[in-house]
Amino acid sequence: RSLYSIYYASAYFCLLSSNHGFKTIVQQKQRRQSRMVEVARKMVELVIKGILPNMIVLAGFVASYLMTNQTRLELLAFEDVLEARGETARIMSKAWLIAAGRHVGVGIGCFLCLMLVAYRVETGLREDVRMLKRRKID
Fold first, then answer.
1. Please, what sign has the CA dihedral across residues 74, 78, 79, 81?
2. What is d(CA 138, CA 132) in angstroms, rounded to the nearest whole number?
3. What pLDDT shows up at residue 11?
4. What is the pLDDT of residues 80-133, one digit of tens each?
5. What are the CA-CA distances from residue 60 to residues 2, 3, 31, 68, 121 (Å)?
6. Which of 58, 61, 37 has its CA nearest to residue 49?
7. Tens digit of each residue's pLDDT (9 = 90 or more) over 40-67
8. pLDDT of residue 113
9. What is the sign, positive or negative, of the torsion defined by CA atoms of 2, 56, 113, 121?
10. What local confidence, expressed as pLDDT, does residue 52 receive?
11. What does DSSP assign to residue 32?
C-alpha cells in the first residue's frame, strides 16, 4: 500500500508539472506517459536496492538451500536403504550419526559462509552491527 501511495502521488505531481510547455493534447499525453514510466522504473529500482539483499547473498541462499537439501536427501535415502534391508533406522547407530552430522555440518558451514559474505557485501548490515556494539558498550 505504501509503495502504491508513493507511486500514485509521484505520478499525480508528474502529471501536474508535465502539462506546461506542450502545445497539443497528444504531446501532453506522451509526456505524462513517459513520466509515469520513469516513476515506475525508479520505484522498482528502489525496491530492488532497498529490500532485496545483494545478488551474491541471494546466490548464497540458493546454494545453501541446494547443498543442505542434497544432504537431507542423502540422509533420507540412507534411512530408506536401512528399511529395505529390514533394519530400522536407529538414531544412535554410527552410520546414521555420521550422515546426520554431515547434514548438520553442511548447514552450519553454509550459515557461517553466508553470514561472512553478507557482512562483507551488505554495508547496512555492517552499520547495524556497529550500532549494536555501541549500544552494548553504553
1. positive
2. 10
3. 63
4. 887 787 776 666 678 788 888 999 999 999 999 999 998 888 877 778 878 888
5. 30, 28, 42, 12, 12
6. 58
7. 788 777 777 777 788 899 999 999 999 9
8. 95
9. negative
10. 78
11. H
The candidate with the shortest Cα–Cα distance to 53, out of 62, 42, 41, is: 62
Secondary structure of residue 46 in the 3-state scheme: helix
Which residue is it, cell 525496491? 47
> DSSP of 9-25, one letter per residue?
HHHHHHHHHHTTT--SH
> What region, left, alpha or beta, does residue 86 occupy, with left being phi > 0 and alpha being psi -120 to 50 degrees?
left
Determine the pLDDT at residue 94. 81
At how many degrees (to 10) do helices 94-121 and 55-84 cross? 170
**Alpha-carbon separation of residue 105 from 4, 5, 27, 66, 72 (angstroms):** 44, 46, 63, 14, 12
> Could you identify the residue written with the cell 554431515?
102
